[in-house]
Amino acid sequence: MIQRDLKYRILEIIPGGIVIFIFLFLFVFTFISPVFVIYLVIIYDILWLFKIIYMEITLVISWNKLKRTVAVNWFEKLKSEKADKWESVYHLVLLPTYKEPIEVIDASLEKLSNTSYDLSKMIVVLAGEGAEGDAFVEKAKIAEKKFGNKFLKFIYTVHILEEGEIQGKGSNCNFAGRYAKNILDTEFSNIPYKDIIVSNLDIDTIVHEQYFAHLSYLHLTIENPTRTSYQPVAIFNNNFWEATSSNRLVARGTTFWLLADFMKKDKIFTFSSHSMNFNALVDVGFWNNDVVSEDSRIGLQCVNYYNGDYKVMPVYIPVSMDVCDDDNFIKSVINQYKQQRRWAYGMENFPYLMTTWLKNKKMPLNVKISYIFDQLEGGITWATAPIVMFLFGLFPLIVVNITDLSQSIIVRNAPFILQTVMRLGMIGMFINAFISFLLVPKTKNKIKWYEYIVLFGEWALLPFTTILLGSIPAIDAYMRLMLGKYMGFWVTPKSRSK
Q1: For labelling, which of 83, 269, 275, 361 has a CA lying 20 to 30 Å from the CA of 317?
Q2: How many CB atoms are closer than 10 A to CB 437?
Q3: Alpha helices, H only, 168-243
Q4: Are residues 248 and 350 in the same domain?
Q5: Residue 498 domain-assigned (yes or no)
Q6: Whether residues 287 and 419 fall in one domain
Q7: pLDDT(498) > 50
Q8: pLDDT tens track for 254-276
Q9: Mean pLDDT (whole number) for 218-225
């Protein structure tokens, strides 16, 4: 078991404790004063309606920005507008992998090798785990033989777990990043760290052909590129048509959350595949090797190191990734549950923020409060909102209808009020469904008309997926953190259809 001091343990308990308190409070008062709970739920649902309206507005704005951005030939724009500077920008790409089949590795490297950028300015690191044994080295050699001469440098690394580390993406990339630094210092010492953009990509990431050109353009045009992380739009399209309906819906929800979240600008967390300046990465000591949520943590490390003078910039260029899947429905749903639980375990950042950040006297208080509030409020809402709206919107009505309060005005009208709020909220679902159609990947065969009906009908599963594959795995993650039953890094199974 990982050892924590008392203060840190109390902070780990707080998120789970708040979730338990909310549910116990509503459950107990449902029997003590069901009308009071009905009032609370109605007010909560109305507030959520306003939040949904705001989210849909931001989603549509972000979607339009995405369309406009991908329509630009960024490599041509880069060469024409930054002709004297663009060749100074290099890219270091890390591809951490563990037990993924060679087809997945090959697909990612193939797309990298066909990107609209000068490959002689790209260093690729295929980062494997020693725990995989000789199997990884065999795959790495196959990849090296096929792609080794297409980039400025192709490297593969083998990470051996050390004491104090957690087996996972964080410790693997920490090792690979340090290894790459040694290569840069010895073989490419003429390249300044500030001119290198490092992209930490999940192995299933298929980058947009203009991704690196767009990053280079941003690097040369924004005010402070060495203190900026770049967060692209994650769209889960690689195996979209092979995945189950429930998992497709969860994946689309993640994409829409990212697009809506992009409008926050100053409070975006790094997530999954992302990019940043190598100078900043070296300054903060690379990714933490003892956390599960290294993707969000690295951005927070940078904000802390630079005393709040660091930003995560939304990048309206997509990267395509895998929907959680397996060879049958049950396994697919279980995998999706585990992936959501791992993402929700990002709540481990809360005690980090409350200790490390609060000790930093140079960071503005408003920056601290903003990030801490977003981390806690977002996580608690993830775990509780669907259950509060769907279950506690019904449960008090059942209880109150067997008492003499059943004739009160609020009780008689509560179902109508809640139904009205839910129907208004359905407008957001229709907007999401429409945008989801626009994101549907092309297939070799023409998409049949009834497949579109299935895609639209999937959104009826939303109440169930938000609870079963949203709230419950989040509660699971917080309870593990609360009880000190710390999670390791669960690697999402990936495959390619033949």
Answers
A1: 83
A2: 11
A3: 169-187, 211-221
A4: yes
A5: no
A6: no
A7: no
A8: 999 999 999 887 778 999 999 99
A9: 96
Lookup: tokens for 418:
């809640």
Q: What are phi and psi of 305, to 5 degrees?
A: -60, -40
Q: Is residue 80 part of a domain?
A: yes
Is residue 372 situated within a structural domain? no
Query: Considering its fold, how many domains does the chain have in total?
Result: 2
Over residues 299-307, mean pLDDT: 97
- Would you say the pTM of this structure is higher than 0.85? yes
Are 260 and 284 members of one domain? yes
Cα separation, 179 vs 174, whole angstroms = 9
Pairing label, strands 196-200, 122-129? unpaired
Closest Cα partner for 336 from 459, 466, 235, 203?
Answer: 466
In a shared domain, residues 471 and 423: yes
- What is the tens place of the pLDDT at every residue in 338-357? 999 999 999 999 999 999 99
H or E element that contains 496: none
Both 97 and 137 in one domain: the answer is yes
Q: Which of 363, 394, 428 is the last residue of a domain?
A: 363
Chosen domain end from 303, 332, 363: 363
Do 348 and 211 share a structural domain?
A: yes
| Long-range CB contacts (within 8 A, 24+) of 211-214 | 211/115, 211/315, 211/317, 211/319, 212/91, 212/115, 212/116, 212/117, 212/122, 213/74, 213/75, 213/77, 213/78, 213/115, 213/116, 213/117, 214/69, 214/72, 214/74, 214/315, 214/317
Q: Are residues 252 and 344 in the same domain?
A: yes
Task: Note the residue count of the chain.
Answer: 498
Q: Averaged over 461-467, what is the pLDDT?
A: 90
Residue 356 is part of which domain span?
75-363
For residue 77, give both structure tokens: 């724009």
Extract long-range pairs of 35-38: CB within 8 Å, 24+ residues apart.
35/396, 35/400, 35/405, 35/408, 35/410, 35/411, 37/392, 37/396, 38/396, 38/397, 38/400, 38/410, 38/411, 38/414
Whether pLDDT at 315 is above 90: yes
